[in-house]
Design goal:
168 residues; eight-stranded mixed β-sheet; 5 helices; 22% helix
Length: 168
């Protein structure tokens, strides 16, 4: 089944309602590697263009969504600061489905049951397009970052460690 024939996800339905242009892309699903890095490789795109959706729980505002390019690591203190919190921490993978309605490798910033602020790495604004999960493993949305931000109200901000940051 081609991406155009793929069953519509809630994220795709929302994007259609917003009216901004987008394209659906499909990639093979490797259950042993559901990473954004693998998705970028399978889609033939650089990691700077493929965004992963992460969910954190903050101490004041509750859940927040963060979008980072593949290969980048979240700066939790920065996420807490931009979201009006003192602390934030990633939710356990085992809680992802119950909190968002999505499974690991299929988490979209749109269309799930979690209504939370979306914070996207500001570097997205310099890209010609971004690619993110459409709410199903192997199905992705490609759209202009400005259109994504206008459609969703996502807040561009610095929420990642520098590209050369290494976790020891």
């Amino acid at each position: 089944m081609s991406a155009k024939q793929a069953a519509k996800t809630n994220a795709v339905r929302l994007l259609e309602g917003y009216g901004y242009p987008f394209e659906l892309l499909e990639a093979e699903v490797d259950e042993s590697d559901l990473s954004a890095e693998r998705a970028a490789k399978d889609l033939g795109l650089s990691e700077e263009l493929v965004y992963k959706t992460l969910v954190a729980k903050a101490d004041r505002t509750g859940y927040v969504k963060a979008m980072l390019p593949a290969g980048r690591n979240m700066d939790m203190k920065a996420l807490a600061d931009v979201s009006g919190n003192r602390r934030a921490s990633m939710i356990p993978v085992k809680d992802l489905l119950s909190v968002t309605g999505y499974i690991r490798g299929g988490c979209s910033p749109l269309g799930g049951k979690l209504r939370a602020g979306i914070f996207i790495l500001d570097e997205a604004l310099i890209q010609p397009f971004i690619v993110f999960n459409a709410g199903r493993r192997g199905l992705f949305v490609k759209m202009k970052p400005d259109d994504f931000i206008l459609a969703t109200g996502a807040e561009p901000c610095m929420i990642a460690h520098s590209a050369d940051y290494k976790i020891s």
